[in-house]
Structures are given as structure tokens and as C-alpha cells.
Design goal:
Distance between the termini: 52 Å
Number of domains: 1
Order of helices and strands: HHHHHHEEHHHEE
CATH class: Alpha Beta
Mean pLDDT: 96
Number of helices: 9
Shape: globular
Helix content: 55-70%
Structural class: alpha+beta
Number of strands: 4
Largest sheet: 4 strands, antiparallel
Radius of gyration: 17 Å
CATH topology: Muramoyl-pentapeptide Carboxypeptidase, domain 2
CATH architecture: 2-Layer Sandwich
């Protein structure tokens, strides 16, 4: 079996894909079936090989729909808890999420304009890993799509916008947080 880079580098996904509440997320029988198989196999197999296998078995579009729903619902729920426990101001969100990213090799700039805070990410070690593995599409859905539900769960009075990501082939990622009044 090939080295499982997803398990090594982003092991926090394990709890997202194996969480018991996932079984209640789907009403579509096919999506329920995919979710159950994904959950049952996730920690026992090479994650990237599993994603390819299930995409071949059920179709990539169906797999991505299931992944996106699981990612959205779990990230939103988890960040709601963080916001309740640690305070849900934008400054706290930045301190909790963004500051530690510098320590693991992310490079970004921050610009504040009134009620908007914009991050421009020019280096992402997770993108570097995805590119090395040829897994940019999977990693976009597994990682980049956590950004919107994270802030929505943390504080629904903060709007998130992004027009580009490194994972999609752009030279940077733009993350814009707008504090609504």
C-alpha cells in the first residue's frame, strides 16, 4: 500500500468522516450508501486510494456531493462549538485558525479595510502536498471547502467570500471576511 499522506498530514479529517451524525445527513439512498462505505473504510485504508475507488464505483460527482455535505455539516458544527467556548469574534477566529497556519508553513498577508479582513495566501503546504499527489480536486473538496462552514458556524454575522484558490490553479487564495452589523 502506498504511503497515506492524507492520514499523516490531515488526520483531523478522520473524525469528520467517521462521525456518527453523518448517517443522518442524507435522504438520498445512494448518498447514504456512499456515506456508510466511506465511513466504514476511511481509517482502514489509504484515504486517496479509497476516494478514487469510491469515485470509480459510484461516480465522482456523487462522491463529491457526499464529501461536500459531510465537510460542510461537520465543520459548521465543530466551529459552532469553538465559537461558543472561546468567543466568536473575528479576532478570535483569526487567532485560533490563521495564526497557527504560519507555524506549519503557510505564507499569507492580511489587509484590513473597515469591516473587511482579507487574507492573501501565497504558500500552502497542503496545496504542495495535493500537487505532489495529483489530488488537487480531492483536496479542494476536503480542505478548501471547510472555510465557509467554519466561519458560518463560528459566527453567522461574519460573511465569507473567496474567488480563487491555489488548489484550483490560481497563484494565490483570497479569503475575505466581512463583519456584518
Amino acid at each position: 500500500m502506498e504511503k497515506d499522506h492524507i492520514a499523516e498530514q490531515i488526520g483531523w479529517l478522520d473524525g469528520i468522516f467517521t462521525h456518527p451524525r453523518n448517517s443522518n445527513l442524507f435522504t438520498n439512498a445512494l448518498h447514504t450508501l456512499i456515506q456508510k462505505e466511506l465511513s466504514n473504510r476511511w481509517v482502514h485504508e489509504n484515504r486517496l486510494e479509497l476516494l478514487h475507488d469510491l469515485a470509480k464505483k459510484y461516480g465522482e460527482g456523487e462522491m463529491l456531493a457526499v464529501i461536500d455535505k459531510i465537510i460542510y455539516e461537520n465543520c459548521k458544527y465543530d466551529w459552532e462549538q469553538v465559537g461558543r467556548e472561546k468567543g466568536n469574534s473575528l479576532n478570535n477566529f483569526i487567532k485560533i485558525l490563521w495564526k497557527p497556519l504560519k507555524d506549519i508553513g503557510f505564507e499569507y498577508s492580511i489587509e484590513k479595510k473597515g469591516n473587511k479582513t482579507v487574507f492573501c495566501v501565497t504558500k500552502c503546504p497542503l496545496y504542495d502536498l495535493a500537487k505532489k499527489l495529483g489530488a488537487e480536486k480531492w483536496m479542494y473538496h476536503l480542505l478548501c471547502l471547510t472555510d465557509e462552514p467554519a466561519i458560518t458556524g463560528f459566527n453567522s454575522r461574519i460573511k465569507f467570500d473567496r474567488s480563487r484558490t491555489l488548489m484550483q490553479g490560481f497563484p494565490d487564495c483570497d479569503h475575505c471576511y466581512t463583519e456584518l452589523s
